[in-house]
Amino acid sequence: VTHMVFVTNGTLAYYYVINGAILNDKIRAGHWAAELVLWSKHPEHCNAFVAETNCDVCLLHAAEFRDSVLKHRNVLAGIVKYAAAFVQEALNVSKRCRKQAVVCNDRELARERLVCAFDYLLQSFGGHK
């Protein structure tokens, strides 16, 4: 796995097996999958995504993302804090099923991670607390 996937239009399905049962999660427009590839040097292989409708997707190459992040040291501390929180969430999800960590894409949890990780920037601009 080398890319994070953003669905901009349509719906992707991600199929996996738990206790012999085939399950799937839907990744709809405005959501994403495989974020773990950004934060893990050797992410576990995930199953294929299947388009359930005509889809438009945007791919974010993990290695290029990491190279870009390293060029912006002023936000690196926040990115590391966000990544640590995301990895912890993915570990918690993977306790139920390792394949489900691919679809850790809850918008509210992502927003909370962002606010916590970049609180220092928000405070410096007077936009938080």
Write the layout of secondary structure elements.
Elements: E1 3-9, E2 11-18, E3 21-28, E4 32-33, H1 36-39, E5 49-51, E6 56-61, H2 62-70, H3 76-96, H4 107-117, H5 119-124
Helix pairs in contact: 3-4
Q: What distinguishing features does this structure have?
A:
three-stranded antiparallel β-sheet; 5 helices; single chain; 6 strands; globular; alpha+beta; about 130 residues
In which order are the strands of the major sheet placed?
A: 4-1-6
Distance from first to last alpha carbon: 38 Å
Determine the structural class based on helices, strands and strand pairing: alpha+beta
Spatial extent as radius of gyration? 16 Å
Mean pLDDT comes to 89
Anisotropy-based shape: globular
In short:
This protein has helices at about 35-40, 60-70, 75-95, 105-115, 120-125; strands at about 5-10, 10-20, 20-30, 30-35, 50, 55-60. The chain is α+β, with helices and mostly antiparallel strands and about 130 residues long.
Describe this structure in words.
The strands form two sheets. The protein has a three-stranded antiparallel beta sheet with strand order 4-1-6. Strands 3-2-5 form a three-stranded antiparallel beta sheet, with no helix packed on it. The protein has helices at about 35-40, 60-70, 75-95, 105-115, 120-125; strands at about 5-10, 10-20, 20-30, 30-35, 50, 55-60. The chain is globular and about 50 Å long. The longest helix is centred in the middle third of the chain and has 21 residues, at about 75-95. Helix content is about 40%, strand content about 25%. By secondary structure, the chain is an alpha+beta fold.
